[in-house]
Design goal:
The chain is an alpha/beta fold. Helix content is about 30%, strand content about 15%. The radius of gyration is 16 Å and the shape is globular.
Length: about 220
């Protein structure tokens, strides 16, 4: 039985945990406030879920989901996640995270910052461009007409394949954009960020994306 550990159990994390349990996975939930604050969520998720500290969730995980504000990624356990696939759901919001020079200059993507913090792990960007409620509202079986597609990017091919399989189990098609450096194509204010798109539509949206420096002033 594969265990998915959650570093952050907010809107996105809790919805992904619901999908994981529905798909037959064990989940270990954590947040910054302590395991006791997750009793209601764990009770809802059922016997395949438990609450723990972030380090315990990281240690127990076969796959980990990081879903916390970008400004807090320095708190993500490092040693406990070595060698593991890490799903990064985060986006950069300067009004929340403060100004991060590498992101302001577009020298790096937000997931590349997490990868730098977790040098022995395999970070895959996913689930950052869909509203939380839609994670449980939009899944469809494979082969369904108009099945929604989700973006992934990661530097490790095996990790991307692992996350592709997981997303398919959760009820979505996948558009694999390649390395983490391509994550800018699905950041806030790009065409693929937010709308429900099938595989062809999302592929077209990624191709149409522009760097912030190339967008007209807002």
């Amino acid at each position: 039985m594969t265990t998915i550990g959650f570093i952050g159990s907010g809107h996105i994390g809790s919805q992904l945990a619901r999908l994981a349990v529905r798909s037959g996975y064990d989940v270990v939930m954590s947040n910054s406030r302590g395991p006791e604050t997750l009793s209601g969520l764990v009770a809802e998720l059922g016997p395949h879920a438990r609450a723990a500290t972030a380090r315990e969730a990281a240690r127990a995980a076969d796959i980990a989901v990081v879903s916390i504000p970008l400004k807090n990624i320095g708190d993500v356990p490092v040693d406990e996640l070595a060698g593991k696939t890490i799903i990064d759901t985060n986006n950069y919001y300067p009004q929340r995270d403060g100004s991060i020079p590498e992101l302001e200059s577009e020298e790096k993507t937000s997931s590349e910052l997490l990868q730098a913090h977790l040098p022995a792990s395999h970070v895959v960007k996913a689930f950052n461009h869909i509203y939380a409620r839609e994670l449980t509202e939009h899944p469809l079986p494979a082969g369904s007409p108009d099945r929604r597609a989700l973006f992934i990017a990661g530097d490790d091919e095996g990790a991307r394949a692992q996350v592709t399989h997981l997303i398919d189990e959760f009820g979505f098609d996948v558009v694999d954009a390649g390395p983490l450096a391509e994550g800018w194509r699905i950041q806030p204010n790009t065409p693929g960020y937010g709308p429900r798109l099938d595989k062809a539509g999302l592929t077209n949206a990624l191709a149409a994306a522009k760097r912030y420096r190339d967008m007209p002033p807002r």
